[in-house]
Each structure stands twice: as structure tokens, then as C-alpha cells.
Amino acid sequence: MSDADAGDERGGRPCPMCETPMYKRHCKYVCPSHGVVYDCADTFW
């Protein structure tokens, strides 16, 4: 199964810590180095 089939989208917002493009998974943005950085519960998003 490819990343696209798994529901991952890369190339979205850059990680605020390392500037690497993050993956969007459901309601979360995930940095490959730092893990979940943002999710839909973040009020400042």
C-alpha cells in the first residue's frame, strides 16, 4: 500500500521546529522528525 492509499499527504505546512514539510493525517499534521505538531484541537491553528 502506498502513502497516498494510507491517507498521508506530504508537502503541507512546514514544521515550526525544523521546516520539514509535514504529513497530514486525518486531523493532525505530523513531522517526520518531531511527530505530531498540530491537531484540530489546537485553538491557535
From TrEMBL:
<protein>
    <recommendedName>
        <fullName>Small CPxCG-related zinc finger protein</fullName>
    </recommendedName>
</protein>
<dbReference type="InterPro" id="IPR049701">
    <property type="entry name" value="HVO_2523-like"/>
</dbReference>
